[in-house]
Amino acid sequence: MGKxxxxxxxxxxxxxxxxxxxxxxxxxxxxxxxxxLHAAYGGVVPEIASRAHVSLVMPVxxxxxxxxxxxxxxxxxxAVTKGPGLIGxxxxxxxxxxxxxxxxxxxxxxxxxxxxxxxxVLLADPEAxxxxxxxxxxxxxxxxxxxxxxxxxxxxxSTKDDSVGEAYDKVSRLLGLGYPGGPPVxxxxxxxxxxxxxxxPMLQEGYDFSFSGLKTAVVNYVRANPGYSVAxxxxxxxxxxxxxxxxxxxxxxDEFHDPAVSVVGGVAASPxxxxxxxxxxxxxxxxxLLPPQKMATDNAAMIGLAGWLRLSARDGEGDGLGFGPLPSxxxxxxxxxx
Length: 338
Ligand code: KG4
Ligand code: ZN
Description:
Layout: E1 4-9, E2 14-21, E3 26-33, H1 35-39, H2 46-68, E4 75-83, H3 87-104, E5 108-112, H4 113-119, E6 132-137, E7 142-149, E8 152-158, H5 164-174, H6 182-189, H7 212-224, H8 230-256, E9 260-264, H9 271-284, E10 287-289, H10 301-313
Bound molecules: 5'-O-[(R)-(carboxyoxy)(hydroxy)phosphoryl]adenosine and zinc ion (ZN).
């Protein structure tokens, strides 16, 4: 057995722990969702999230160790999300990770959550070719980038306002479909028709995105048409989102001809997006890298993978115990390219 790393992720409303080997094989991945605690409020309540992380983090770590069939002393490194995310939520994971690392005398690595999502392509294909055209679509982010090699990113564009996941969550709330919005909106969309002409914001403009105008168009339509079909609104909304995402991906493939396209982040769980990206790749002959559907949304396995990449880039040296949560941590762009 090679070296094993324990990863902890508590940036938002999932308390997650995983055990990942230095061969980048995931030995266990446990996610305790707090969805039920937040559903009544229609979104994540930061204070409730922090308190739930406090009570869940050690049981979730224990479960990850149990599922991997190992004990704490078998762990040789700890990785934890340092940001971006909710400050109180991040703090809980960081405190747990530092305490465990200190008591085991092993290094702790501080991982950028966005790099975690990008590393989740290793779950699709450990031999993923580079450069990759990477679309990161989650509740908090919508970023189009090129990964030139692991950890080296060239920025192409990002959203000027809402992320796609955020638009999904808001439309879901408007349609009375609950939180989080992605899965129920997609389920309804499968029963409807893309017949409502919602806008495709910034479709013709470069690589940036904007989704707040689309969301407003959906709100206006629903208010003006009390007898609206939930399925058709969901389908037309999802169609507009996907048209924008796929058009920008196609434009970038046309410009850069990268051999692989990766789509990561919670919205990459969308069967509609997954199918559209597969179709695009079939047309262009590029390879698609999609994390398994369950690993698209927040989890600690992706933090463990990014943790190993960071540790090996630093010759095994951890980040020490001096780091704290960084709620607005951006992805760091490679110098000279951006
Ligand atoms: O990556 P993630 O778990 O958390 C963040 O880092 O933000 O992404 C959560 C987002 C939510 O907005 C959720 O509605 C969306 O991902 N999502 C989906 C689907 N499953 C989750 N969006 C579209 N279709 C889905 N099936
Ligand atoms: Zn995430």
